[in-house]
């Protein structure tokens, strides 16, 4: 069986030791694709028929509640590889509506930690949206908006998909803005992901222009790997932190994570890393001895536990899904989550 890996950068190991000895505050921010978190009730105007009691997946209360319990367990442990309290902020994808987010936040251990959420109903034809879960003791929300994904081709005028979910707030007494994304699927073709990445780039530029000092975190299921054109060229997220020269530059710490052989989902025997957390230059301290006087990156990892993986069979060692075909696997998600750590 493929064992879960703990991928922490050398920066994380060294800096984490230094912070532990001092009085610095540490923070963890994560992202998780929840793989079709649907309730059992039809949403008018949405194509959610497969996730109804009489639908293809026979999606009933028992299955829904188990899905909530499983996701809450992962979300509650997310970030604990380096930080005892785990993540204080978590972006999520594939949530159906506010009802499922209410139910998720009412499930332990999220309930006892007082997690809240921000969500805006989007136009996706299946009804799946992005959202942001957060501990109000860690992150204070200022404002929230959904920037629409704009179709460029006339033939797509009747097709709508997820937008760019922007949440601005305060963390560590600093202005932090998080953009949660779920770019068009691979079935749509590369053109649509590149178009989405260009639009995401415009959102990023506008946020940095509005506040050059904003600590900007761009996260999501990009449906592309870090080195693919949508991410490396259209969004222009760099591979190495020392490539950051201008205030608008972005760094993707998960580029080398995938190069080192660690991903978040597996397809046809190959690991991909679609679930990325990308950082603005303002979050990266390039000095040899970071002083952490402002919120600063110090490490990242793909989060995994053995219970999140297929235990045997053809897909042994890959993420344990909720369903495959029409078979209920009692799993978690077809993606593994990612985490970035900060200190101040």
Detailed description of the structure:
- The strands form four sheets. A seven-stranded mixed β-sheet has the order 5-6-7-8-13-10-9. The chain has a six-stranded mixed β-sheet with strand order 3-4-2-1-17-14, covered by helices on one side.
- The termini are far apart.
- The protein is globular and about 55 Å long.
- It has helices at residues 10-21, 61-77, 98-105, 190-210, 229-234, 254-259, and strands at 26-37, 89-95, 116-119, 129-134, 139-147, 164-171, 174-182, 215-221, 237-238, 250-251, 265-267, 270-272, 275-280, 296-302, 323-324, 327-328, 338-343.
- The protein is of the alpha+beta class.
- The model is unreliable at 9-22 (pLDDT under 50).
Alpha-beta classification: alpha+beta
Strand order of the largest sheet: 5-6-7-8-13-10-9
Q: How many beta-strand elements?
A: 17
Poorly predicted tracts of residues: 9-22
The percent range for helix content is: 10-25%
Rounded to an integer, what's the Rg over CA atoms? 19 Å
Percentage beta strand: 25-35%
Q: What kind of sheet is the major sheet? A: 7 strands, mixed
Please state the overall shape, judged from the principal axes of the Cα atoms.
globular
Question: Mean of residue pLDDT?
Answer: 91
State the distance separating the first and last CA atoms.
38 Å
How many helices? The count is: 6
* H-E string: HEHEHEEEEEHEHEEHEEEEEEE
């Amino acid at each position: 069986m493929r064992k879960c890996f703990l991928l922490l950068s050398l920066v994380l190991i060294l800096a984490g030791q230094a912070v532990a000895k001092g009085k610095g505050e540490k923070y963890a921010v994560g992202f998780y694709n929840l793989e079709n978190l649907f309730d059992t009730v039809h949403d008018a105007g949405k194509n959610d028929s497969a996730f109804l009691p009489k639908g293809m997946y026979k999606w009933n209360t028992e299955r829904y509640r188990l899905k909530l319990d499983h996701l809450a367990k992962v979300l509650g442990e997310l970030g604990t590889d380096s930080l005892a309290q785990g993540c204080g902020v978590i972006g999520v994808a594939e949530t159906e509506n506010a009802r499922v987010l209410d139910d998720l936040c009412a499930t332990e251990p999220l309930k006892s930690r007082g997690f809240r959420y921000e969500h805006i109903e989007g136009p996706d034809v299946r009804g799946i949206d992005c959202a942001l879960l957060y501990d109000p003791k860690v992150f204070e929300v200022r404002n929230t908006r959904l920037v629409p994904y704009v179709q460029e081709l006339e033939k797509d005028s009747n097709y709508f998909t997820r937008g760019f979910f922007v949440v601005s707030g305060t963390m560590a007494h600093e202005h932090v803005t998080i953009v949660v994304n779920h770019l068009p699927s691979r079935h749509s073709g590369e053109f649509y992901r590149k178009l989405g990445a260009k639009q995401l780039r415009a959102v990023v530029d506008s946020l940095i222009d509005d506040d050059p000092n904003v600590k900007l975190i761009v996260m999501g299921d990009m449906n592309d790997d870090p080195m693919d054109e949508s991410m490396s060229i259209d969004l222009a997220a760099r591979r190495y932190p020392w490539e950051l020269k201008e205030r608008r530059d972005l760094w993707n710490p998960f580029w080398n994570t995938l190069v080192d052989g660690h991903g978040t989902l597996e397809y046809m025997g190959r690991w991909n890393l679609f679930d990325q957390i990308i950082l603005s230059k303002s979050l990266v301290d390039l000095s040899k001895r970071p002083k952490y006087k402002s919120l600063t990156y110090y490490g990242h990892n793909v989060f995994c536990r053995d219970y999140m993986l297929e235990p045997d069979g053809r897909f042994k060692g890959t993420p344990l899904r909720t369903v495959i075909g029409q078979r209920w696997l009692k799993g978690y998600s077809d993606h593994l989550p990612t985490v970035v750590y900060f200190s101040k």
